C-alpha cells in the first residue's frame, strides 16, 4: 500500500500539480484547501507526510498555526512547509515549530520529490526492517507438503487479496500467528505494518490504553496499537482473552472504521484489516457469557483452522531438517545429518506443544550435543521424552525380563507397530510399505496382536 501524503494549499492548481507529481511516483495523495478540512483529514486518517502552505489565505488558521495543531495531535508526523512568499524568518519559524523542511514556490519537481523521499524515509525503513524480521521466520512453521498444511496455505492465498476478516483457530504452538503473517505478506497491505495485540498479556485495566492510545487536553500522549496498524493488519492473538468492555468498543471500530483515544473526544479514522486467533472454543465462550456473539460473527468472516503437528506428521522430517539447519548455523556449526531413527522417533511422538515444541527440542539438541557428534544426530542425542515410550513409563527391556519369550516378542511387536502406525498417521498402506509387509499381512498381524483397524480403512487403534 502506497504512502499517504496530505497536500494542503489554498490554490487548487498547486494542490493538483503537487498531487499529480507525487501520484506519478507511486504515492497516494489527498488534498485540502483550508485549515479546517486539513485538520479533519489528519484526524480521519493519519497521513505519512503533510505538505503545508504557510499562508492558507481565507482559512481560519494560517499554515504555521495548522502546523502547531498537527504537532499537538501527532508529534511524530513529518510536515514540509512551502510558500511562494517564504523568507528565511518564515523557514526558521516553521522548522523551530516542528516542520521537517521548507521549500519555496515555484519549486522543481525533482527538489520536491527529494524532500518527500527524505521525509518518508524513516517510515519506509521501519516498515522494511519489520518485514525483513518477520519474513525471515514467518513461513518456517508451515514448512512441508502434507495435505493438511497445503489446504491452509491455499485458503490463505485465496483470502489474502480480499480484505475480509479472518479468524484462525488451532492448538497452542501450531502456527496461528505464522498464518496471520503469511496472510498479511500475501495481501495488498504487505508494505504497511503488521501489529500484534497480545490479548493474554495486556491487563484488563490497560487494554484500552494500549489499543486506542491516550490523549490529554486534546494532545496526543501516546498512539495505540490500532493507530499504529493504520493501512496494515491488526492481529488479535488469543482474542478470547479480550475484556468484555473492550470487545464492545472493537465492535464499533469494525462497524464505523474509527475510534476515540482514551481521554479524547475526536473520532480518529483508521483503515485496518483485522485478523484474530484463538485456541479456545469461542462458541463455548459465548455460551458462558465471556465473549460477545455479535463480535464473533464480525470476526469470523473466513474461518481458518491450523492443524496440530500430530495431524501433519508427514511434515515433521522437513520441519526437523529446517530447524536443525537454522540452529546449527546459529551455533556456528555445519548442518547435521539426521539418522533415519531420529526422524522415526520425531514422527512417532505426539507433540502436545506442536511446532513450537519441535522447534524447542531441536534447539535444545543442537545446544547440548557434544560438538564432535553434531555431524550426525542419533536417537540418543534427543531428549528422553521424545525417544521414551509415552505410555510405558517404567518400561524398556527391564519390564520384559519376567515374561516368556513369546509374550515379550508380542509386546515388542505391538509397541513397534503402534509407533509406526502413529508415525504414518494411521495409514496402514504406508506403514506396511515401510516395515516390509504386504497390507493384508499387516492386517492379519494387527488382528493377531489385538490391534484392530477401523473398518479396514487405514486408521489403526493401538489399544
From TrEMBL:
The keyword Cytoplasm applies. Residues 4-120 form the Response regulatory domain. It is found in: Cytoplasm. GO terms for molecular function: ATP binding; sequence-specific DNA binding. Keywords: Activator, ATP-binding, Cytoplasm, DNA-binding, Nucleotide-binding, Phosphoprotein, Transcription, Transcription regulation, Two-component regulatory system. GO terms for biological process: phosphorelay signal transduction system; regulation of DNA-templated transcription. The modification 4-aspartylphosphate is found at residue 53. InterPro entries: AAA+_ATPase, AAA_lid_NorR, CheY-like_superfamily, Homeodomain-like_sf, HTH_Fis, P-loop_NTPase, Sig_transdc_resp-reg_receiver, Sigma_54_int. GO terms for cellular component: cytoplasm. Residues 142-367 form the Sigma-54 factor interaction domain. PROSITE patterns: RESPONSE_REGULATORY, SIGMA54_INTERACT_2, SIGMA54_INTERACT_3, SIGMA54_INTERACT_4. SUPFAM superfamilies: CheY-like, Homeodomain-like, P-loop containing nucleoside triphosphate hydrolases. PANTHER family: TRANSCRIPTIONAL REGULATOR (NTRC FAMILY) (PTHR32071:SF17), TRANSCRIPTIONAL REGULATORY PROTEIN (PTHR32071). This is Response regulator.
Amino acid at each position: 500500500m502506497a504512502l499517504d501524503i496530505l497536500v494542503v494549499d489554498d490554490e487548487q492548481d498547486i494542490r493538483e500539480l503537487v498531487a499529480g507529481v507525487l501520484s506519478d511516483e507511486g504515492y497516494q495523495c489527498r488534498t485540502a484547501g483550508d485549515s479546517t478540512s486539513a485538520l479533519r483529514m489528519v484526524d480521519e486518517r493519519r497521513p505519512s507526510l503533510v505538505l503545508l502552505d504557510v499562508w492558507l489565505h481565507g482559512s481560519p488558521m494560517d499554515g504555521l498555526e495548522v502546523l502547531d495543531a498537527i504537532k499537538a495531535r501527532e508529534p511524530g508526523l513529518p510536515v514540509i512547509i512551502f510558500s511562494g512568499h517564504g523568507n528565511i524568518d518564515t523557514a526558521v519559524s516553521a522548522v523551530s515549530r516542528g516542520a521537517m523542511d521548507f521549500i519555496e514556490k515555484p519549486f522543481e519537481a525533482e527538489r520536491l520529490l527529494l524532500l518527500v523521499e527524505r521525509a518518508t524515509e524513516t517510515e519506509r525503513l521501519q516498515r522494511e526492517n519489520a518485514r525483513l524480521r518477520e519474513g525471515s521466520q514467518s513461513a518456517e512453521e508451515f514448512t512441508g507438503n502434507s495435505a493438511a498444511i497445503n489446504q491452509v496455505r491455499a485458503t490463505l492465498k485465496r483470502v489474502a487479496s480480499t480484505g475480509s476478516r479472518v479468524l484462525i483457530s488451532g492448538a497452542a504452538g501450531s502456527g496461528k500467528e505464522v498464518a496471520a503473517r503469511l496472510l498479511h505478506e500475501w495481501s495488498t497491505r504487505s508494505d504497511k505494518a503488521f501489529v500484534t495485540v497480545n490479548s493474554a498479556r495486556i491487563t484488563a485495566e490497560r487494554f484500552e490504553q494500549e489499543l486506542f492510545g491516550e490523549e490529554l487536553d486534546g494532545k496526543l500522549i501516546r498512539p495505540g496499537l490500532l493507530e499504529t496498524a493504520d493501512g496494515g493488519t491488526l492481529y488479535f492473538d488469543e482474542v478470547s482473552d479480550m475484556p468484555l468492555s473492550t470487545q464492545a468498543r472493537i465492535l464499533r471500530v469494525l462497524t464505523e472504521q474509527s475510534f476515540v483515544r482514551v481521554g479524547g473526544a475526536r473520532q480518529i479514522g483508521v483503515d485496518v484489516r483485522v485478523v484474530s486467533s484463538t485456541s479456545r472454543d469461542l462458541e463455548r465462550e459465548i455460551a458462558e457469557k465471556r465473549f460477545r456473539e455479535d463480535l464473533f460473527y464480525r470476526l469470523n468472516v473466513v474461518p481458518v483452522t491450523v492443524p496440530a503437528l500430530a495431524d501433519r506428521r508427514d511434515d515433521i522430517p522437513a520441519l526437523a531438517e529446517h530447524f536443525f539447519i537454522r540452529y546449527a548455523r546459529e551455533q556456528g556449526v555445519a548442518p547435521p545429518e539426521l539418522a533415519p531413527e531420529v526422524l522415526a522417533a520425531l514422527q512417532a511422538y505426539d507433540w502436545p506443544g506442536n511446532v513450537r515444541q519441535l522447534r524447542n527440542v531441536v534447539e535444545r539438541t543442537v545446544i547440548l550435543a557434544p560438538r564432535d557428534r553434531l555431524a550426525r544426530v542419533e536417537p540418543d542425542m534427543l531428549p528422553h521424552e521424545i525417544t521414551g515410550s509415552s505410555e510405558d513409563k517404567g518400561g524398556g527391556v527391564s519390564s520384559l525380563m519376567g515374561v516368556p519369550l513369546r509374550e515379550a516378542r508380542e509386546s515388542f511387536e505391538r509397541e513397534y507397530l503402534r509407533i509406526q502406525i502413529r508415525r504414518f498417521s494411521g495409514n496402514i498402506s504406508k506403514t506396511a510399505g515401510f516395515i516390509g509387509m504386504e497390507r493384508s499381512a499387516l492386517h492379519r498381524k494387527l488382528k493377531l496382536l489385538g490391534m484392530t483397524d477401523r473398518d479396514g480403512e487405514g486408521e489403526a487403534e493401538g489399544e
